[in-house]
Amino acid sequence: MVKRREDLTAPRSARRFDVHYDADAFGRFSESIARFLGTGRYLVFQTGLIIAWIAANLLPPARFQFDPWERGLVLLTLVLSLQASYAAPLILLAQNRQESRDQRQGEHDREIAANTEADTEFLARELAGVRLMVADMVTADELREELANLSAAVDRLAARLDLPDEPATPAHP
Question: Among 99, 90, 104, 100, which residue's Cα sits nearest to residue 35?
Answer without folding.
Answer: 90
